[in-house]
Write a structure and sequence with these properties.
Elements (H helix, E strand, L loop, with lengths): L2 H10 L2 H18 L2 H4 L10 H11 L3 E5 L22 H11 L5 E3 L7 H11 L8 E6 L2 H4 L12 H4 L7 H5 L4 H12 L1 H4 L1 H16 L9 E4 L2 E4 L11 H14 L1 H15 L7 H19 L2 E6 L4 H4 L6 H16 L2 E4 L19 H18 L1 H18 L1
Parallel strand pairs: 1-2, 1-3, 3-6, 6-7
Antiparallel strand pairs: 4-5
């Protein structure tokens, strides 16, 4: 073998080069599909928004929905199924189709605890293509603006999952509120190994805990059973809380121990409202303004729904908080030009329509769908006409 070939072989078989090759193969492998969720481990895409975004970009529906888990009840059927795993809104879609006179296609891109930052990135990803939905329905509540844990946008449960789909141009990166958020966005956009670092940790952690729990430890690891998180042998580790596992668990919990869910959310709201927000309000205000500007630029009709929650949970916040939030949204709608549907104090959402104080049951979700469409018919017929135009254009493309 000549000296050049020997030197080349030595370089190719060196530890740094082999390491880079293995990392490259792992990067390609991670980009192929959501491997951790497929095998039952929680990943950076813990709400499987990547699959729904990819489907949205491929099919281009007429209407998209964003928001937190408060919008997920629109997916569910009479038994409560598809709350966590669905992306269709059958009853709302049916009502919008009747009201517009055309068969509307609607896709739900809501995720658990979705922040305004994540909603902005989702719309940025969807509207970056040549064709995109021209109506966006966004359901939110006061929580999105006062939860200090999400004052760092990178902590959002779907921030890293959405980042690879949003364009990483100077304009988009410049809209990221914090420096840490900007870096996390860029790393997650270009490097799936970075984006899915938590999935690798969850895989190793879950299997280690399962193995150690077979031994006579003084205390087992913390697991969730009946929606109660505590050291116990039965139940789900946090590392295995995927939408499919949550769907199955919640189906049982809502039948047997629904009070556990309510108590957990009440504790979260109590701790969240214990102190006034410091940074969360500024950051989410920034992203809501950015979303309104993006929709205006892309000629997307933004419909913002001030969502109902139970009076019990409203009472946890400092007095006048929800009334002030209601007034603030009304002022912003006039200033920024989005369409506001205010259901925060609607009397038809009685206490028994909430499964756990926050999320609507099946009948409550049907009331929500009727309220949204009725408001569109009464106050914003332009939106229904836009839906109909989009539906006709979509059908012409499919011919």
């Amino acid at each position: 073998m000549n000296p050049f070939a020997t030197k080349l072989l030595r370089i190719v078989t060196s530890v740094p080069v082999i390491t880079l090759m293995l990392l490259g193969c792992a990067e390609i492998f991670m980009r192929s599909f959501n491997i951790p969720s497929t095998f039952g481990y929680r990943s950076s895409d813990s709400w499987q928004i990547s699959d729904r975004l990819a489907y949205c970009l491929k099919t281009v529906p007429d209407v998209t929905i964003v928001g937190s888990s408060l919008m997920l009840p629109l997916n569910q059927d009479g038994s409560g199924a598809h709350f966590y795993t669905g992306m269709r809104t059958p009853y709302l879609t049916e009502l919008m189709s009747k009201a517009s006179g055309e068969p509307i296609e609607c896709l739900n891109l809501a995720t658990g605890r979705q922040t305004v930052a994540e909603a902005y990135l989702i719309e940025k990803a969807v509207s970056a293509r040549k064709r995109y939905p021209k109506v966006l329905i966004y359901g939110l509540i006061l929580r999105e603006f006062v939860d200090e844990y999400y004052a760092g946008e990178w902590r959002g449960e779907s921030f890293g999952a959405v980042a690879p789909y949003a364009p990483a141009d100077l304009q988009s990166v410049g809209k990221i509120y914090s420096n840490r958020g900007m870096l996390d966005f860029l790393f997650s956009h270009y490097l799936y190994l970075y984006r899915d670092r938590s999935a690798i940790r969850n895989f190793l952690s879950a299997n280690t805990k399962d193995f150690l729990d077979l031994m006579p430890l003084d205390m087992p690891y913390s697991r969730m059973y009946n929606f109660v998180q505590k050291p116990q042998h039965r139940g789900l580790l946090f590392e295995r809380l995927t939408p499919q596992n949550m769907e199955a668990m919640m189906h049982e919990v809502n039948k047997r121990n629904p009070q556990n869910v309510r108590d957990t959310f009440r504790q979260h709201f109590t701790s969240m409202h214990a102190y006034p927000p410091r940074n969360a309000w500024k950051m989410q205000h920034h992203y809501l303004k950015s979303l309104a500007e993006l929709c205006d630029e892309k000629e997307v009709l933004l419909v913002l729904v001030n969502m109902p929650i139970s009076k019990e949970f409203q009472a946890i916040a400092p007095k006048g908080s929800y009334e002030g939030f209601q007034q603030w949204l009304d002022e912003l709608s006039q200033k920024w030009g989005f369409f506001l549907i205010d259901l925060a104090f609607d009397p038809d959402f009685t206490e028994d329509r909430f499964k756990d104080g926050l999320h609507l049951d099946y009948e409550g979700s049907r009331i929500l769908a009727r309220k949204i469409v009725k408001a569109l018919e009464r106050d914003y017929p332009t939106i229904l006409r836009t839906m109909a135009e989009e539906a006709r254009e979509r059908k012409s493309r499919q011919r």
